[in-house]
Amino acid sequence: MGFCRLLFLVNVLLTSWFSSAKGEGIHCDFPKIRHGIVYDEKKYEPFSPVPGGKILYYSCEYNFASPSSSFWNPIICTEAGWSPVPKCLRICFFPSVENGHSTSSGQTHKEGDIVQIVCNQGYSLQNNQSTITCGEEGWSIPPKCISPNSAGKCGPPPSIDNGDITSLSLPEYAPLSSVEYQCQNYFLLKGNKIITCRNGKWSDPPTCLHACVIPEDILEKHNIVLRWRENGRIYSQSGENIEFMCKPGYRKLRGSPPFRSKCIDGHINYPTCL
């Protein structure tokens, strides 16, 4: 009777040892989840690789969800890797269809879902498609049915900071229409001042670079004066060079920016004198 107990105990110990030995060889790289985060990531990542059997939890960023749609999702390290495979899928809200309809209107879909759209007579989706797909960046094309007669037209030209178009803005522009931009006083126009409507989109508009204002208190702070101008406040366009010099009785600080500085989109590196 004692011998049978001993055999049983040895069998249990061997089974336990083999199970432990089998688990010791399993490791998983720390999970890198696109659009997702691991719970207490900073705590666990330094101990990567993760041993077999370890359970971690992950969540998804805004506008993304796991396949189970749970907020925190458990994954376990196995011989085949993390199970289930951690994924964060894009969430696409489907609004009503302009000039058409769909049974998906008002519903939410996940990445990979395909939605059928029926356009009203005389309208169609872009490229005469009948479906749109929820992808990582959102819907493959806008859920909007358009008339062939409106294809290629553009809406109002894009607005820019510190500038505007030289003509009255219209609600719609025909293909190959052009508009011209201008900047406010003391702002420098960078890029093409004329943009064109092509394939329903405007070409890139220009930008208006900030001018540099040199007030008297800044000059006083750095113990400098303007080399060629006597007024206490000036405006310079972006790209213009400005020259300074030390006030009488002061010397340029070692390592200070040079006396000749360039205005770059509203910024100047001022030299300093002591």
From TrEMBL:
Classification via InterPro entries: C2_domain_sf, ComplSys_Reg/VirEntry_Med, Sushi/SCR/CCP_sf, Sushi_SCR_CCP_dom
Keywords on record: Disulfide bond, Glycoprotein, Repeat, Secreted, Signal, Sushi
Organismal lineage: Eukaryota, Metazoa, Chordata, Craniata, Vertebrata
CC annotations in GO: extracellular region
Subcellular location(s) per record: Secreted
Record's protein name: Complement component factor h-like 1
Signal peptide bounds: none
Main localisation: secreted
GO biological processes: blood coagulation
Sushi domain span: 90-147, 152-210
Keyword Disulfide bond: yes
Organism listed in the record: Rattus norvegicus
Statement: the UniProt record of this protein carries the keyword rRNA-binding: no
Disulfide bonds: C154-C197
